[in-house]
């Protein structure tokens, strides 16, 4: 498969849109669980540039959480993100086909591992610190949202949605639709799902869990989706299951367009 052309290493490019751009006025509310989402929210960036997230990436460790309005905290595995790709990651990376787009690449362990495997890979993330760390590993990354214009649209061999990134935008159906636009017709979507049976869409904020004050930055939409829920969204969006497995206590799905 021909790799997208615009994947040359870049030195931490400047974001094309403000990091806290809100949803467009009149954007429709979330559909009922399991129903197909409407058009993808272009250009929306959550508050991943908030200081606790940047500080965690710079230090290589947490604590760091996504906090719901009711106070419930979802732990974020910063230490694993900042380490090298582990055995569970490799079960995914070895399935990648052609050129690979890592959506929400974080500090870059997956893009770096793919490069070591000889794959052409590009990471995208809305956090400038994440992009800086990825480029520092010798990998290629852009500071950009998945809902913004991207290089090689319609020509990627594989798209990755790992580390909870199926939750980006809070609308799994819209995210699946967007990934379909990015992939080549026979491309492969590799997604990590929540290890429990859940289908939840909420507003969250970044929180360091230290109790020093209010959560930082604007709230933003997020989703937690288990395998059964993701398969329902996939069926509505015209995807079929190519593989499903677990490794290291994590759950994964491979999807193709039906």
Descriptive report:
- Strands 5-4-3-6-7-11-10 form a 7-stranded mixed sheet, sandwiched between helices. Strands 2-1-8-9 form a 4-stranded antiparallel sheet.
- It starts with 50 loop residues before the first helix and ends with a strand.
- It is globular, with a radius of gyration of 17 Å.
- Strand 6 (156-161), helix 6 and strand 7 form a beta-alpha-beta unit.
- With 258 residues, the protein is α/β, with parallel strands linked by helices.
- The chain has 7 helices and 11 strands.
Q: Which structural class matches the secondary elements?
A: alpha/beta
What share of the residues does DSSP label as strand, in percent?
Answer: 25-35%
Helix % is 10-25%
Q: Which consecutive residue ranges, at least 5 long each, have pLDDT under 50?
A: 1-36, 38-44
Q: What is the overall pLDDT average? A: 84
Radius of gyration from the alpha-carbon trace, in angstroms = 17 Å
Count of individual helical segments:
7
Number of strands: 11
End-to-end gap: 19 Å
Largest sheet: 7 strands, mixed
Q: Which geometry do the CA atoms define? A: globular
Multimerization state: single chain
> In order across it, which strands form the biggest sheet?
5-4-3-6-7-11-10
Q: H/E series, N to C?
A: HEEHHEHEHEEHEEEHEE
Quick summary of this structure?
By secondary structure, the chain is an alpha/beta fold.
List keywords for this structure.
single chain, 258 residues, alpha/beta, seven-stranded mixed β-sheet, four-stranded antiparallel β-sheet, 7 helices, 11 strands, 23% helix, 28% strand, globular
Topology:
Layout: H1 51-59, E1 65-68, E2 73-75, H2 78-82, H3 87-93, E3 100-103, H4 109-116, E4 121-125, H5 128-136, E5 141-143, E6 156-161, H6 172-182, E7 183-193, E8 199-207, E9 216-225, H7 227-237, E10 239-247, E11 250-257
Parallel strand pairs: 3-4, 3-6, 4-5, 6-7
Antiparallel strand pairs: 1-2, 1-8, 7-11, 8-9, 10-11
């Amino acid at each position: 498969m021909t790799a997208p052309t615009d994947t040359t290493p870049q030195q931490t490019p400047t974001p094309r849109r403000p990091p806290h751009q809100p949803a467009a006025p009149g954007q429709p509310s979330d559909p009922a669980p399991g129903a197909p989402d409407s058009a993808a929210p272009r250009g929306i960036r959550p508050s991943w540039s908030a200081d606790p997230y940047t500080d965690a990436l710079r230090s290589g460790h947490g604590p760091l959480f996504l906090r719901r309005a009711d106070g419930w905290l979802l732990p974020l595995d910063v230490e694993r993100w900042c380490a090298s790709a582990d055995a569970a990651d490799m079960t995914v990376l070895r399935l990648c086909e052609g050129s690979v787009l890592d959506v929400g690449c974080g500090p870059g362990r997956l893009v770096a591992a793919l490069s070591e495997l000889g794959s052409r890979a590009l990471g995208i993330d809305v956090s400038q610190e994440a992009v800086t760390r990825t480029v520092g590993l010798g990998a290629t990354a852009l500071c950009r949202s998945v809902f913004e214009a991207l290089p090689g649209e319609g020509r990627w061999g594989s798209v990755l949605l790992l580390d909870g990134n199926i939750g980006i935008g809070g609308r799994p159906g819209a995210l699946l639709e967007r990934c379909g636009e990015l992939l080549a017709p026979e491309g492969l979507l590799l997604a990590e799902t929540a290890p429990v049976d859940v289908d939840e869409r909420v507003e969250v904020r970044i929180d360091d869990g230290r109790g020093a004050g209010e959560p930082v930055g604007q709230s933003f939409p997020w989703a937690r989706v288990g395998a059964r829920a993701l398969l329902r969204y996939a069926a509505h969006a015209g995807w079929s299951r190519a593989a499903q497995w677990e490794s290291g206590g994590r759950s994964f799905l491979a999807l193709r367009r039906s």
